[in-house]
Amino acid sequence: MHLTNRLVPLRWWLRGAAIMALSTSIFTPILAQQAPATIRLLPEDAQRGLNGPQHNFDFLAPGASGDNYQTAGFFGQKLRPYLAGNAEALAHLNNYRRQKTLFLIDRLVAVGSFGLYGQQILAKDDRQYFNNTQKVAIGVFATSLLATVFINRNTNTHLLRAVSAYNAGPARGSVWPRLRPAGVGFGAAPAGQPLLAIRWALR
Predict the structure, then answer these.
(1) Are the C-beta atoms of residues 90 and 84 closer than 8 Å to each other?
(2) How far is CA 2 from CA 13, 55, 100, 159, in A?
(3) Tens digit of pLDDT for each residue in 122-179?
(4) What's the pLDDT at 31?
(5) What is the pLDDT of residue 12?
(6) I need a surface site. Which of 10, 69, 72, 136 has the fewest CB within 10 A?
(7) What is the DSSP string of 108-156?
(8) Cα separation, 97 vs 80, whole angstroms
(9) Which residues contact 182 (CB under 8 A, 6 or more apart)?
(10) Judging by beta carbons within 10 Å of its beta carbon (0-12, 13-18, 19+), is residue 11 exposed, middle or buried?
(11) 12-22, pLDDT tens digit by residue?
């Protein structure tokens, strides 16, 4: 009889310890994440606007910290895995890729027309600087330079919008921030049994 009375508290103590260990392993990683993970651009890249520089963006992946920035790639392709599932962000990233493709084509046209002009200089025995072919090449080159201005005007904006749409997504669509308990602890029932206590704050 005495042995049974001693085993009852021990059994409840072991059950309480098991519940505490289990709840700690489940809730600690979740509660440690106080805010949704976001993509952070290099500060100077985040300030780019209309007609800004066209070099690659650098970013910190969700959950990364410090100075572990990585390049987004010429077409922003290294951002794509993080944006998967966010249709709005992917649409902006697709627009960015389109603009960068147009920029690349435009550069090839400019280089090609410049090369054609140079090739025509020595095409005949005497040097040529303004024959009909060269006139066309000059016109194409000038058009390409003008097109560059319009192509580059909104290119950076598309990637900035893609990142903004991704960062706004978790805060707008996640259920967990609204359901996350304000506190987790343990209490004792009147009979002495351990109870898991979870408290929510009304918002």
Answers:
(1) yes
(2) 18, 79, 81, 73
(3) 888 888 899 999 999 999 999 999 999 999 999 999 999 999 999 997 554 444 444 5
(4) 45
(5) 55
(6) 10
(7) HHHHHHHHHHHHHHTSSSS--SS-HHHHHHHHHHHHHHHHHHHHHHTHH
(8) 11
(9) 199, 200, 201
(10) exposed
(11) 555 565 555 54
Q: Is 0.90 surpassed by the pTM of this model?
A: no
- Quote the CA–CA distance of 79 and 73 in Å, as a whole number: 8
Helices (H), 65-86: 80-83
Q: Is residue 43 exposed (0-12), middle (13-18) or buried (19+ Cβ within 10 Å)?
A: exposed
Read off the pLDDT of each residue in 27-32 and give the average, rounded to a whole number.
Answer: 48
| Long-range CB pairs of 183-190, under 8 A, 24+ apart, other chains included | 184/23, 184/27, 184/31, 186/16, 186/19, 186/20
